[in-house]
User: Fold these one by one.
Assistant:
Number 1:
Amino acid sequence: MAVHLGQTFVTPQAPGVLPHLWMVLSDPSRGERYLRFAEVRVADRGSLEKLLTTAQLRPSHDLTPDLLRRIQVAVAASKVVPIEAARIPTAQGLV
């Protein structure tokens, strides 16, 4: 299953696993790396697609363009987001 900018996913609840929201904040057409917002981690395309295919992630509602932009700006400007993650929206020209 292919992923796209603004798409969100939820980790289904399981024993010992709380539901978790994932958001694709970087452009899949511009590279293999994606931002996962919460701890703001970088995930690669193959890993996300595998999690979707194996139902370890469940698709949810896409972000609105306005909300996506606000989150991208916040990630890029944050002093607590890892630099590797904070640089991706700017490097892709999204902010």
Number 2:
Amino acid sequence: MKRYYTIQLDGNAVRFTPGGEVAVVDAIQALSGSDRAGAIWQDRRKSDPQLDRRCRDYLFRKNAAAEVVDTEGWEEIEKALINYILEKGLPDDPRWNLTSTV
């Protein structure tokens, strides 16, 4: 088992490697509040295979690997998530209720 760190964001555990790489699905879950974070990630990586190439597997626990990405890779994934929202709409979660001021 490799060493890793966990940060709680709004009740969601987000795992990080000692080198600062973030677990992709954990981060998507924390940002979106959606229980479909894995499906969102699968959709994005199919739409843009370059995102998948930025990731690597990290063994957080025995038999429990997850894809992690560095800061530059995460910035690309964030852009892809914005495109996902524009294409497919916002996830069904109260935290996505946005208000605008004029």
